[in-house]
Amino acid sequence: MSIFKTLEKTDHEEVIFCHDKATGLKAIIGIHNTKLGPALGGCRILPYATEEEAITDVLRLSRGMSYKSAIAGINLGGGKSVIIADPKTQKTEALFRAFGKFVETLKGRYYTAEDVNTSVEDMDFVRMETKYVTGIDKALGGSGDPSPITAWGVFWGLKAAWERKTGRKELEGVRVSVQGIGHVGYCLCKFLHEEGAKLIVCDMNTAATERVKEEFGAHVVHVNDIYDVECDIYSPCALGATLNELTIPKLKCKVVAGAANNQLKEEVSDGSALQERGILYAPDYLINSGGVISVYNELNGITATEYSMNMAQRRIYGTTHRVFDKSEKENITPHMAANKIAEERMTMAANIQTIYTA
Ligand code: NAD
User: What's the pLDDT score for residue 118?
Assistant: First the structure.
């Protein structure tokens, strides 16, 4: 792998390799684009099989964060970090504090947050070494777990897509299948149930599915059967790349709108395959941007949940409609339309004239 060739291709600004012998820390911080503001993106901890795999992941994810913040209309750039370690055995206070020291050296060019296999508690350790960390505990003056706000944004993106597809605003009686009842999936089910939607859910964690069955009357199906379910809206809230050449032909829905990142295995071909089947796809990184909106507000000193929920609702609902307008007008997929809107905003920020003031 030629790092500089890769950076040129993906348009990255900087990659930082962090090593600390005492704690065994091996981390990579990717900074994709800081035209709109400081790079922000979570820190995930995974036992990557190779260093190349870790680099590929951090580059892909940091680029994704630039697009997410750009389309969410907030002034943040894109970054991400990965720690190469086994989360089951290697997570320690020392490891996160060592990571925090590296984040501190960037002096605010990169802000970290929780992500896959890292928690609010882990970020509290990072916070001991740097102030450039977000999504910290409410008790420490942060905005806490962003998942409910993410779910609220997904809910409004889903509503916009349903409205666009059917002309109907309300979700009463609409059948929504949800894959993954985790932090976001559970909250989304709650909002959907409150609007009268009928839920079909799956998760290998049976305690999670039993809970939504009991609380919201959800119908539970096996994880392998979720793509074959007759429904109106399919909402992927578990993993990435679940919309692919094997699953898209099976879908029996009108709309796909969910929280998971990178749902399309192939941005172009899988986006087109959905369009050809007449399934309206609400771009994942747009409708799941509620969490980053909340974190952005936290950076600006606003930690009130209602404020972020309100902002996520307005932004995501409005922009989802804007994306569909552009998609129809330019005859491109919604995902490509979202990419264009995000790129236009990054270019706009780069081109704003600097005015000298004495
Ligand atoms: P989570 O880990 O709390 O929940 C994921 C759930 O999916 C778990 O219950 C897990 O058992 C289940 N799952 C895993 N594989 C599955 C499969 N094959 N079939 C069915 N269920 C499966 O994660 P989360 O915080 O709820 O996030 C869900 C998705 O949304 C992730 O892709 C995440 O990257 C994305 N996302 C989350 C946030 C946030 O604020 N938490 C923000 C933006 C995007």
Answer: 93
Name the residue of 222, 239, 296, 297 to mutate for ligand 1: max ligand atoms within 8 A of Cβ.
239
Per-residue confidence (pLDDT) for residue 354, from 0 to 100: 79
Nearest-atom index, ligand 1, CA of 208: 9
Rg, Å, the chain Cα set:
20
CATH code where residue 220 lies:
3.40.50.720
Which atom of ligand 1 sits closest to the CA of residue 150?
Answer: 40
* Tens-digit pLDDT profile for residues 262-285: 999 999 999 999 999 999 999 999
Q: Whose CA is nearest to atom 10 of ligand 1?
A: 180
**Dihedral sign of CA atoms 85, 12, 112, 323 in order:** negative
Same domain, 216 and 124: no
> Is the distance from the beta carbon of residue 261 to the nearest atom of ligand 1 less than 6 Å?
yes
Catalytic residues: 80
Q: Who's near 197: CB < 8 A, 6+ residues apart?
A: 171, 172, 173, 174, 175, 176
Map tokens 């609902």 to a residue. Answer: 317
Last residue within a domain, chosen from 90, 107, 140: 140
Percent of the chain's residues with pLDDT above 70: 100
Q: Over the stretch 26-69, which tens digit does the pLDDT of each residue have?
A: 999 999 999 999 999 999 999 999 999 999 999 999 999 999 99
E strand intervals along the chain: 14-20, 25-33, 39-40, 43-46, 77-84, 110-111, 175-179, 198-202, 219-220, 233-236, 255-256, 280-281
pTM over 0.85: yes
In a shared domain, residues 116 and 21: yes
Q: Decide whether any atom of ligand 1 lies within 6 Å of the 205 Cβ.
A: yes
95 and 154 share a domain?
no
Between CA 272 and CA 264 the distance in angstroms is 10
User: Within 10 A of 321 (CB to CB), how many other CB atoms are there?
Assistant: 15
The CA 275 to ligand 1 mean position distance, Å, reads 25
With the most atoms of ligand 1 within 8 angstroms of its CB, the residue from 152, 188, 204 to mutate is: 204
Q: How far apart are CA 245 and CA 250, in angstroms?
A: 9
